[in-house]
Specification:
The protein is of the alpha+beta class. The chain has a four-stranded antiparallel beta sheet. It is elongated.
C-alpha cells in the first residue's frame, strides 16, 4: 500500500487477493467442490470438509507474487496466485451474465469485474489478474 497512488484502491486489491487466494486454497490445495454449495446443507458440508481438510493438509502450497509497473497516470499491478493442486484443465471458472446470484462462482465474477483481465495458466494452477488504476 506504499506504492504512490494505490492507497485508494486498497479495498479492490484486498478483494482480488482474497478471492484468488481462497480459490487456490479451497479448490487447488484442499480439493473442495463448489458444486456442494447449492443450498444451506451443501454450504454446511462444504465448510465442514474445509475445516477437516485444513486440519490434515500436508504439502499444500499457495504462492502469491505481485508485480507493479508505474505509469505516468497510475500504474498496473499484476497478481499471480499459484497452487500445487490438480488444476482444472479445460474447465476455467466463469460466470455468465445473470449468474452472479448463484451460490458459487461469485468471487471469480467479482475479480473479473474489478480487473482488466483474469487468466489461468498451467492447467488452472496459476491465476493471473491485471489491475490498472
Amino acid at each position: 500500500m506504499h506504492i504512490q497512488g494505490l492507497d485508494r484502491y486498497r479495498e479492490d486489491l484486498f478483494t482480488v487477493l482474497t478471492e484468488l487466494y481462497i480459490n487456490a486454497l479451497d479448490h487447488g490445495v484442499l480439493k473442495l467442490d463448489s458444486g456442494l454449495k447449492t443450498d444451506a446443507a451443501g454450504f454446511s458440508e462444504y465448510f465442514r470438509l474445509r475445516e477437516e481438510r485444513l486440519a490434515t493438509v500436508s504439502g499444500g502450497v499457495v504462492k502469491i507474487s505481485l508485480e507493479h509497473v508505474q505509469r505516468a497516470a497510475g500504474g498496473r499491478l499484476t497478481v499471480r496466485i499459484e497452487d500445487n493442486g490438480d488444476g482444472f484443465e479445460g474447465q476455467a471458472p466463469t460466470a455468465a451474465a445473470g449468474e452472479n446470484d448463484r451460490p458459487a462462482g461469485r468471487g471469480i465474477a467479482l475479480v473479473r469485474s474489478l480487473c482488466d483481465s483474469l487468466t489461468y495458466q498451467d492447467g488452472g494452477r496459476v491465476a493471473v489478474a491485471e489491475y490498472s488504476w
